[in-house]
Amino acid sequence: MLVLLTRAIDESRQTGVRLAREGHEAIISPVIEMVPTGAVWPTGVIDAVIGTSARAFELLSSRPDWPLPEARRLMPLFVAGEKTRDAARERGFGGPALVAPDAATLAEKIESCFDSPCRFVYLAGRDRSAELETKLTGIGHSIELVQVYAAQPADSLTEEAVALARSGKIGVVLHYSRRSAEIYLRLGRNAGLDLARVNHVCISQNAAAPLLAAGIHEVLVAKAPNEQAMFGILNVLADLPEAPLAEAQNWTAGPQGLEQERT
Question: Where are the domains of the chain?
Fold first, then answer.
């Protein structure tokens, strides 16, 4: 199956390699570019570092005072996803790590770990959900927000992606964030594409929200917020040749892909 990837270029290339292993072909048309902001690490004592995106660590300044290597090795980590933890490790953050599957669960785990107010550095993107920081400040913690990167929207989809979409050759579009889904909608409309002509597989309800709000019904959401669950859905759709999503309405998205509902 031909799959359209709209993530930032590096992430799309990595996903494309994984798709090839699953027997699929990828067409890449990034709708966002991750650009470092040059944000500065705050001064003073920090109790722990929070991160919900691997990109926040990957684009973190490598200057020795950002922060000192000794501090990086000791500060506890609270992160969403193993990929984020691995990116932090590559940047020298070697402290004990608490890993949660998503930001909401991470906030709950942090809340349960501390009885008194703490000061956290939150490495994040400029465009993000404020749920985690709102939750933690609401229970008395101090959040030093460091906006490491910004997602710059693309001006258009690539000519190749538009041509393949118009010809009906793209079987699925994968969506990994609300922001990228919103930009994809705008660019697709600008190109005159029929966005309901293709199936959409989303990593979360939040990522799917713009598509559903636009009246697009060909949307499936993975129950587990990870790429493996998305690929499971994709593989099942690939086994339904020429079948529109409407014929899979008795299926739900589960950790292993689509699961048939009992009636």
Answer: 2-31+154-260, 34-152
